Amino acid sequence: MRKTTILALGAALLFTSSSFDAPEKPKGWEPLLDKKLSKWRTFESYRHKLGYKGKQPTDAQGKPIPPIGYDKNEANVFSVVMEGNEPVLRISGEIYGCVFTKQDFANYDLKLKVKWGQKKWVPRLDEPRDSGILYNSQGECGVDYWHSWMLSQEFQVSEHEKGNAMGDFWCIANSTADIHAAYNPTKDTLKYNPAAPAVTMGRGGPGFCQAAANYESPAGQWTELELINVNGKSVHIVNGHVVLAVNNSGAVINGQRQPLTHGKIQLQSEAAELFYKGIMIKPIDAMPAEYEKYFK
């Protein structure tokens, strides 16, 4: 009897120890990152040079150079390291491109953490570190200015410098959206302001909008990002603060505005080293009531 009790107690302690070692999956959330990047594909385009003007690079004879392509990992741009039991995605930034989900997503809450590395690359050696989460991504990679990404909307991941901040918005390729915004104090770009009139982004108009404020964590610390994306509405959240809201997500196709409400998720490689962890997604049916005020 005593031996059985000791064995049972030992098994219970072993089970408890193993439970603490394994990261617990939050209820309703699907982890997207593992050490094999099994839920993602990659695309690499070019090592862009200074003076790039949006045209496909050419060789010495003026012939267009093809991109490196899909499912290539030249220079080990995309890799996963383990911190304890947790996978961490490293994107070196050396070559422009992206890692993107194999699955198409609609109506979800996405959470992840990001931290900058030390390395920077041409052509952004003198620019803030920059990357982004591209959502509602559709079609082929390489249709944007940098010949690197899919049609999409961007939740910018950027150092707070030169007017950039975590949670800024960019139209990628021919995307469009409506954002409540007004010109910032220097009058050189739009800044998110929920009290301002809505401005149509893209479609020949402005393609960039600053986040309302900077809530990036101090250097060397993880910044928590959250993207809530439902039926053409999305909210950019940084360390728990709403910094921007996007409405009427769309794309201009054959001159007509079409809805852009679902797609793959891309994480950019854009001349700066950075790390992501805790990438997880949860399906939702509607925009949570606490955020509906941003769309009135």
UniProtKB/TrEMBL annotation:
Annotated Gene3D superfamilies: Exo-inulinase, domain 1
Protein species of origin: Hymenobacter cavernae
Highest taxon, organism lineage: Bacteria
Keyword Signal: yes
Any Pfam family matching the protein: 3keto-disac_hyd
UniProt keyword Signal, yes or no: yes
Residue span(s) of domain 3-keto-alpha-glucoside-1,2-lyase/3-keto-2-hydroxy-glucal hydratase: 28-282
Name of the protein this chain belongs to: 3-keto-alpha-glucoside-1,2-lyase/3-keto-2-hydroxy-glucal hydratase domain-containing protein
Keyword field: Signal
Signal peptide: 1-22
InterPro entries: AL/BT2_dom
